[in-house]
Amino acid sequence: MAARRVCSAVLAIGLLLAAAVAAVPPHLQLVTDTDGGLSLDFHAASCPQLEGIVRAAVQAERGQDVQVTAGLLRIFFHDCLPQGCDASILLDGEKSFGPNASLQPRALQLIESIRAKVHAVCGATVSCADIIALATRDAVSLAGGPSIAMPQGRTDSLRPATNAEVNTSRRPSPT
């Protein structure tokens, strides 16, 4: 019975991820890539430990609370849908905005914890947008979902999106 619930949860997570990717309008990128610099080895020289740090942190957090996977998926979706993956979801102006106000605090804390670890080891060379993407990818994989290659090299937004920049009708409700 427990195995059936786990399979159902993994299937639901996979479908949610597929729906999140499919819901991104064609005029928006799933990544913010202002200079064409996305690649699988973007941080290979500047932060070779990056993927290991992210995966270890996500694995440890999932050991405490498996629901963090759903929290990370929702953060990734809410960040990427409006204007591309730029970590603007972590800015106070967006965290408190309507549907974002109910994002899972533990998942947000995990992203901050990973950022602090990565920056302590590598300096501020890795964007929060890349950290969100890698953490979400690892959480889905650790939950039994697909393991995908995740290009890196996104840039972080320095300000929340304005209402004119965001089609708020496309965002999911907080429940």
Q: Notable features of this structure?
A:
6 helices; iron; Haem_peroxidase; Plant heme peroxidase family profile domain-containing protein; 175 residues; Peroxidase, domain 1; globular; signal; 0% strand
Characterise this structure:
The protein has 175 residues and is mainly alpha-helical. The protein has a single domain (2-170), classed as Peroxidase, domain 1 (Orthogonal Bundle). Helices cover 51% and strands 0% of the residues. It contains six helices and no strands. It has helices at residues 2-23, 50-64, 68-83, 92-95, 105-122, 128-142. Helix 2 packs antiparallel against helix 5, helix 2 packs across helix 6 and helix 3 (68-83) packs across helix 5 (105-122). The longest helix has 22 residues, at 2-23. Residues 14-34 have low confidence and may be disordered. Residues 37-175 form the Plant heme peroxidase family profile domain. Pfam families: peroxidase. Residues 1-23 form the signal peptide.
Explain the layout of strands and helices:
Blueprint (H helix, E strand, L loop, with lengths): L1 H22 L26 H15 L3 H16 L8 H4 L9 H18 L5 H15 L33
Helix pairs in contact: 1-3, 2-5, 2-6, 3-5, 3-6
